[in-house]
Design brief:
20 strands, alpha+beta
């Protein structure tokens, strides 16, 4: 008799031939949720697909018990899993208690919202209401984000915020009673009773582990110190191995990851079969939520923290650490390294490489792609230079300012929305190890690193060079990523590489990462009132006030942007700690996602995209930038708005090729406005106006 896995494969093969049936991911979820075994489903579907199609189209009646079984199966699915907007029968799942604080405007908005199906999550039955708790002083969430579909395995969402009273605040205003008084009890309650977790984002991936966020009071109640103190940044500190809580965890046969018990602690046991046993903890008072990525979130009430993190989990991923860590984890969650595959010789199902992924084994970079302390460089004695694909830090020479420019009253800063994310779209990167070539012919379709002399490319000195981060003209041969060399060719110059490190296997590895983060960014901006249908004037007006519309969702937007930047930076994570010695391997090198060549490809493409816009602007308007910092550019302007200098056609539409205003990645928004006198004064001091035009000191968005 065939195994369940074989039947599973046969069923999917049958269903793939029948376009009338639900899509594969939906089928898999419905099978599991309805409790239908693969064997029963296979029996129900062992009939001609054409007969099934005829029956569904109303051209014939069921003529066999198997087809009638198929009919009953479809009707059962329809009853249990209605289309969006159709009421579903109540399910007998344990229900949380909703406090009165969540039954006001926020709750009514949630009821009115249209459900949006999250990847790999089935629609869920509506939960019966229970009597509300008495009103508390806790502040309700100001506004609800669109409610996602709920996986019946995780009825209470992906995470909860635990306070000192034993109340665990989840998404959508739910509150669970948590009786745990120790970390071990908390872990066991989370896995057995909480109903927390999130479904996998890819059919070959893994479900997200539940996240419990601890307030300071909750941490103290569980025996943890309220704060971690030490000379290092608090995020880098860990509990000592002899701490009572660490000993309790070990005594109960639970384990900590190599990161130890820090602000983001993972407590786990080895998986039993397909069931993972892992809980992620985040301790707020230990600076788990960086203020730069999650502005104001740590100071919010537990219910609002749950809302912020819940929206992020729904739209991006359940946090597993800093936004940088989450950005990297999202890449792997969307492109799992392995998939199940049947061994033709034994008939068993084995773990096999998932095409398009980075696989399970770390890969050493080519010497010019590595960092100076990398073992590949130190052991080989490499001294022929490195890739220098970084974001722009350029200021125009003050002597190149014209009198006409100096008399303009304003300096206006434009910022490109998530420039690195825009660069990741349809970006072909290498998937295999690099091969070394001498005197290769340049091919813009092959990702890799090229040693080539671009010093002969002559451009207007009022523009930065597209080939160097500081905008200076190259002085001789140097290593460049494919996009940089291709841009020199696009400008009409011959390129003759001296040598190259190229990759034979390629793919758009970051595509699903880009698509998910772009949707998250655009949807969150839309929730803040910045929608795609606004004209440029209305867009600028909406952007002025979007952070005040809903501070919680504004924090989500900030976290999404930090996820992009940090995820790209993590692709080339440097060694940490004073004890490190050059030539030693550091932990990040053991990840398949330690890929400095992919980081270089993203930044190279982003910088080239910026230069292309700068060049087109100079041709269309005669305007040249004063300074560029990563994705921010400052222009002299006759008025205090981008509308005063951006190019528009006679019809009123923006001219293609230059900077355009809008809410999607790659389009621009207003960064800040200052006087031209202010900008020139900074330039004379050797400072970058793009860093300060917003007011204060901008963070260099270079993917670190």
């Amino acid at each position: 008799m065939a195994s369940e896995e074989e039947l599973f494969a046969n069923i999917d093969a049958l269903l793939e031939e029948e376009p009338q049936l639900p899509p594969p991911t939906e089928r898999a979820r419905l099978r599991e949720a309805a409790g239908i075994t693969q064997a029963r489903l296979a029996l129900a579907l062992k009939t001609s697909t054409q007969t099934v199609k005829n029956y569904e189209n109303g051209r014939s009646e069921p003529k066999s018990p198997r087809l009638e079984a198929y009919q009953r199966l479809l009707k059962g699915w329809a009853a249990k899993y209605p289309a969006h907007g159709t009421p579903a029968a109540p399910a007998a799942t344990p229900q949380p208690v909703a406090p009165e604080a969540f039954t006001g405007s926020a709750a009514s908005e949630a009821k009115a919202a249209v459900p949006v199906e999250a990847p790999a999550a089935p629609a869920a039955p509506a939960a019966p209401e229970r009597p509300a708790r008495p009103a508390t002083s806790r502040r309700p969430a100001a506004k609800k984000a669109t409610k996602p579909a709920v996986d019946p395995r995780f009825p209470h969402g992906p995470l909860a915020v635990l306070d000192g009273d034993g109340s665990a605040y989840g998404v959508d205003g739910i509150v669970l009673d948590c009786p745990a008084t120790t970390v071990v009890e908390l872990v066991e309650w989370t896995l057995r009773e909480s109903g927390l977790g999130a479904p996998k984002l890819n059919r070959y991936g893994k479900d997200s582990d539940p996240l419990i966020v601890l307030t300071a009071a909750a941490a103290v109640k569980l025996g943890l110190p309220e704060r971690l103190e030490g000379h290092e940044q608090r995020r880098s500190l860990r509990l000592p191995e002899d701490h009572p809580v660490v000993k309790q965890v070990a005594k109960a046969k639970w384990q900590l990851t190599q990161r130890g018990f820090g602000p983001w602690a993972r407590i786990y046991r080895k998986a039993q079969g397909r069931d993972r046993q892992c809980v992620q903890l985040a301790i707020l008072s230990w600076d788990a939520l960086d203020e730069r990525s999650w502005p104001g979130v740590s100071e919010m009430e537990p219910a609002d923290i749950a809302r912020v993190l819940g929206v992020y989990a729904q739209r991006v991923i359940t946090p597993r650490g800093s936004t940088a860590v989450s950005g990297l984890e999202l890449m792997t969650a969307l492109r799992p390294p392995t998939k199940p595959e049947r061994d033709e010789q034994t008939g068993n199902w084995v773990s096999a490489y998932n095409p398009g992924s980075l696989g399970t084994e770390p890969m050493d970079p080519a010497p010019p792609e590595a960092t100076a302390e990398h073992p590949v460089v130190v052991t080989s004695g490499w001294s022929s230079g490195f890739l220098n694909e970084e974001a722009y830090q350029w200021v125009r020479d003050v002597d190149l300012l014209t009198d006409e420019e100096c008399t303009l009253p304003f300096a206006v800063g434009l910022d490109l929305n998530t420039a690195f994310l825009a660069a990741a779209a349809r970006l072909v990167v290498g998937l295999s190890a690099p091969d070394h070539f001498h005197s290769p012919k340049f091919n813009p379709k092959i990702p890799g690193s090229w040693l080539v002399d671009l010093s002969h490319v002559e451009l207007d000195p009022r523009l930065p060079s597209p080939f160097t981060p500081d905008g200076t003209r190259p002085t001789g041969p140097a290593w460049y990523q494919t996009h940089t060399v291709a841009y020199a060719q696009e400008l009409g110059y011959d390129v003759h590489p001296i040598e190259a490190y190229l990759r034979r296997e390629t793919g758009a590895y970051l595509d699903p990462w880009h698509d998910r983060l772009k949707t998250a960014y655009v949807d969150t901006l839309a929730d803040l009132g910045v929608t795609r249908d606004l004209d440029d004037r209305a867009f600028l007006s909406a952007m002025e006030r979007h952070k005040e519309v809903d501070p919680a969702l504004a924090a989500v937007l900030s976290a999404i942007k930090a996820t992009v930047k940090g995820g790209v930076g993590k692709l080339r994570e440097r060694p940490q700690g004073k004890s490190y010695k050059a030539g030693e391997r550091w932990p990040a090198l053991e990840r398949p996602t330690w890929r400095p060549d992919i980081r270089a490809a993203v930044i190279s493409k982003a910088r080239v995209n910026m230069h292309r816009k700068l060049l087109n602007m100079s041709r269309m308007t005669g305007l040249f930038p004063l300074a560029v910092l990563s994705d921010c550019v400052v222009y002299p302007s006759p008025g205090d708005s981008p509308l005063d200098f951006l190019p528009y056609a006679a019809s009123g539409k923006p001219q293609p090729g230059g900077f355009r205003l809008g809410p999607t990645p790659g389009l621009a928004k207003l960064e800040g406005v200052q006087s031209m006198l202010w900008a020139v004064d900074l330039m004379e001091k050797g400072l970058n106006p793009a860093r300060h035009i917003k007011g204060g000191d901008a963070v260099l968005d270079e993917g670190e």
